[in-house]
Here is the input.
Amino acid sequence: MAPAGANISSDRRNFFMSSAQLEALEKKERQEQDPVRQQLGSPIRTKARVLGFELSDKDTAVLALASHQAKVADLNAGTCVTAAVKHAGPVTSVAVLGPEYRAGGSRIAMSASWDKVIKVWAVDNPHRTLAILRGHSDFVKCLAAHPTMPIVYSGSADKSIMFWRLPESADALLSDQSPLEISPFKVIKGEHTGQIYTLCLDPTTASTLYSAGSDASIRAWDAHTGIPLAAVGADSDYWHIARGQHKTNIFDCKLTENGLWTASADKTAVGWDLETRTADLVLEHNTAVTAVLPILQIGVVVTGVRDGAMYVWRINSGVPTIIREIHAHTDDVTCLRMAGRVFYSSGLDETLRRWDIRDVVEFSGGLEYIPVELKKQDTQQSQSTTAVASTANTGHSALTEEEERELAELMSDLDD
Here is the structure.
């Protein structure tokens, strides 16, 4: 029997919560019930928190789920395939090897988990584990895959980065009924002083691997040997960005041909000059930035934050400016990826969403992005609840006419 006066209610509001916490909870519940928000981005309902994802091709994504599974999503059908790769803990990250590395015609994917292992499997047949990569002594937090070689990179809560080499021929993974056991060929430990949260490869030659995490520093490595990258003009100085500009956890990093972008719990996304190792641009937010996606061919950067919002920043016209807000996810945005002119976002709200960057940027209905067909529905709902709804959605574009013309020219690059 519960002691007298004990709180035995299942209603979360009856537990000790501050006014701010109650307000945030009520706001989130309102958002979850908003029919317009439920349709934004044509969400794929994953029935589990999405901790990360990777695009296998234009029609397929591989998902890392908190439900101890990795799954494949059919982007055209808007559904998840029933088959799943099973782990003994939440799956934190996934990666897909280059399109030429195939087993039985299928792309090869990897999934990493709190269970300290990385599993290798065919996207077309998630039921079967082809190889198991063992070596980490704590949660595996992130993965990266070389685009042209059978090399996989992993970062862990054990503060290490490991390099793994798969068989030269992917079909060799099919030769045995039991999974192939693989050990790392390179272990980097002692450089980072905290957990490794994110890894990324340079997009042109894939010759350099960048790492970042809870120690707020960024480091670079030769992607083939694991040797620290030397700083330009200083043979004895290894390339790294020390804690300073970022004050705490770096959750995401993305490389472009022109530089590096990072997202941090210190409420900033930063664009870095790789040669000078200094911050070129700092995008300030009101909460932790959990994901970043530079789309520099049209001069914008997309950021995702802890409360589920996404912001589109125009960065090629002086002071960085938010030109669009997307309020679709009702919990943390966990990952952003680009394919052509479409970008995808995932969140802890158990959804994967799709966005046409042209539609988002060229939208003229206000700062907040709500497509015309959904905005009509939103207006009708507003009119039924407030007498002033006729002014609720007027808004204005954050771009001048000259900027609109310039952007239209840049947008054509995405269609090439």
